[in-house]
Predict the 3D structure of the following.
Amino acid sequence: MRYMPLKRVVSLALGALLCGGVVVMSLRIQNENERTLNAQAREQAQALVSYAARNMSRWLQEKNKSELALMADNLAKDPLITDVTLYDQRGVPIAQSGNALPLDALLPIGSDNATQPAQGKGRQPFVEEVKAGEETLGYLRITFEEEQQLKPIRDRQRHQAEQVRLMLMVTLLAGFFISFGVRRHYVRVRKHKKLDKSVTPEEENSGMVTRRAPARRRKPRQGR
């Protein structure tokens, strides 16, 4: 039974470890980018909800429901916003946009919703207190289309990751072919050196080593 040389086994093992390390590092970077992207999107959404809550505090103090409903409809016109709902201190809706959804349709609330409802997939509600000084006047809830917001960025990151993987594969293949060519050249040179060492100077001087004479070229016959 013919066994593989130890050097070749070590080389193959190191190559496999290198490929595995590159794949693991690529997946880790992709997951880290995904977490960072989600965190940035939620920070921006929370900042927008806080800004809208500060603007609504004046109309909530005056109990101007028509103005509050108009502000809710204007906010809901944004393609990245699903609905807007304003609650009082007890959690009773005061004003909401025309396409408002109940909270249990977005989140798994209650014993009947063990999993996230279908309408809540890809959407994320954010809640902010509406205050006047230190007094809490109510609560503002804005639901964002999180999946729609992050989809273009995720597609761009996925495309960049595929390009990086392709470059790594090309680099690994190029390294493999270069090492294969260098190894073949090394084996050929080593074999040639062994053949030269097998002929001793005494054998060469005594004429024991026969060398093939160069073939003579035959003259072409002249035509009659």
